[in-house]
Amino acid sequence: MTQDNLAYLHLVEIGRADLDDRIRALWPSALVVTPTFARPGDVTKADAANAWLRCGADVIAFGRGFLANPNFVERLRVGAPFNAPASHGLYGGDHRGYTDYPTLE
Q1: Residue numbers of the chain with a pLDDT score lower than 70
Q2: Around 5, how many Cα atoms within 13 Å sit in the side-chain half-sphere?
Q3: 38-72 b/e with 16+ CB inside 10 Å = b?
Q4: Are 72 and 95 part of one and the same domain?
Q5: Same-domain check for residues 26 and 55
Q6: Residues 75, 42: one domain?
């Protein structure tokens, strides 16, 4: 399989800017980046913008941070605090960890 058969590459940052830069240089097509953050749920507009600028990403993905915040985009827009993802229920189990996080009032 060549890259011509792939729609995009998804990079989950590990805190190695040199590696991220090398991957971007070698990958000419769409790049999705999940930025690393100091603490789960610790996401800001600046973090997203920095990941986008740093890696030349086409799309920024937030994974667990998005799952834990049903109104993620609104929280990002107004600068509201984020719920930290709970370790129970993520990617398995029942509805807990998907539908039981508080929303903004």
Answers
A1: 1-4, 37-45, 47, 88-91, 97
A2: 2
A3: eebbebeeebbeebbeebebeebbbebbbbbbbeb
A4: yes
A5: yes
A6: no
